[in-house]
């Protein structure tokens, strides 16, 4: 049975063109040993836009997401071909320090993963490890927690263990932790999948606030969420080769309102209307 497609958000925000992209992927293929998990991805990501990546399980969304800050480097046997550029510079060039890449491009994971330390220490950790020397660490912690819409809830319990917070609060703390090192972009891998609807709504509102200053790329299985929060949407699918192996492919990438109301590829339409996936 088919379902109607989610309705994209309608507001007064024009989606800017991609004249000066933050990221450019060109013919990106990601291998795990000899297996190509995702093939030939070409797309640009605009500054201070929210870009959503959607598609069925096993289509390579999270694999592509991890290429934007070289997290795949941490997986044995993973390698990339093609190009990933950040402000025109090759992120995978030999002289590029992956740790510096991850400072500039923060990451928020599927399950909240605060450190078993105080709320304050969770936020202060990144600046300390990165040898940032803020004039006042207290101010930096407050700024990051405020930006993550958490300050008012925790300002009187900063010494409390972060693991005592609710799931939604923990995820906002992880966003504050990512912001504390002053990144330009934030990657979010299914950031609401472990949260209830009220916590999810808070994270979505937070994304809109953060997008005034940060470039955000989100992987989500929730098409309604992609329609609600993103400026642009990339739809991936998995193709099965003659040996029965699945390979992710980017099918279509466009302004979110177009993807959800007038997709250019029948496979996109079939997915968003629930005919498959």
CATH level 1 class label of one domain: Alpha Beta
**Mean pLDDT value:** 91
Helix percent reads: 25-40%
Fraction in beta strands:
25-35%
Rg, rounded, reads: 19 Å
The H-level CATH homologous superfamily of one domain, spelled out, is P-loop containing nucleotide triphosphate hydrolases
Terminal Cα span:
12 Å
Write out the strand line-up for the largest beta sheet, numbering strands in chain order: 5-4-1-2-10-9-3-8-7-6
> What is the second-level CATH architecture of one domain?
3-Layer(aba) Sandwich
Describe the protein.
The protein is α/β, with parallel strands linked by helices and 277 residues long. The chain has a domain at 23-111 and 185-272: Rossmann fold. The chain has helices at residues 61-65, 98-104, 119-129, 137-147, 151-154, 167-179, 197-210, 223-229, 256-261, 266-272, and strands at residues 23-32, 35-45, 50-54, 78-86, 89-90, 105-108, 185-189, 215-219, 232-240, 246-255. Helix 3 (119-129) runs parallel beside helix 6 (167-179), helix 4 (137-147) crosses helix 6 (167-179) and helix 6 runs parallel beside helix 7. The protein is globular.
């Amino acid at each position: 049975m088919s379902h109607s497609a989610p309705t994209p958000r309608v507001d007064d925000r024009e989606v800017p063109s991609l004249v000066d992209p933050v990221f450019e992927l060109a013919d990106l293929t990601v291998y795990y040993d000899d297996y190509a998990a995702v093939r030939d991805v070409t797309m640009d990501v605009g500054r201070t836009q929210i870009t959503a990546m959607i598609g069925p399980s096993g289509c390579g969304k999270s694999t592509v997401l991890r290429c934007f800050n070289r997290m795949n480097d941490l997986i044995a046997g993973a390698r990339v071909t093609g190009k990933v550029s950040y402000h025109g510079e090759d992120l995978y060039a030999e002289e590029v320090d992956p740790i510096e890449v991850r400072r500039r491009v923060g990451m928020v994971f599927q399950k909240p993963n605060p450190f078993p330390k105080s709320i304050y220490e969770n936020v202060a950790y990144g600046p300390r490890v990165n040898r940032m020397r803020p004039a006042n660490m207290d101010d930096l912690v407050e700024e990051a927690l405020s930006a993550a819409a958490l300050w008012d809830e925790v300002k009187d319990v900063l010494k409390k263990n972060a693991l005592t917070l609710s799931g939604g609060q923990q995820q906002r703390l992880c966003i504050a932790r990512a912001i504390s090192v002053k990144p330009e972009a934030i990657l979010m891998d299914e950031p609401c999948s472990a949260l209830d609807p009220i916590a999810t709504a808070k994270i979505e509102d937070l994304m809109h606030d953060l997008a005034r200053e940060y470039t955000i790329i989100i992987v989500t299985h929730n098409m309604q969420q992609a329609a609600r929060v993103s400026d642009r949407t990339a739809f991936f699918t998995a193709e099965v080769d003659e040996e029965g192996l699945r390979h992710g492919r980017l099918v279509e990438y466009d302004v979110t309102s177009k993807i959800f109301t007038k997709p250019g590829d029948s496979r996109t339409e079939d997915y968003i209307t629930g005919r498959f996936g």
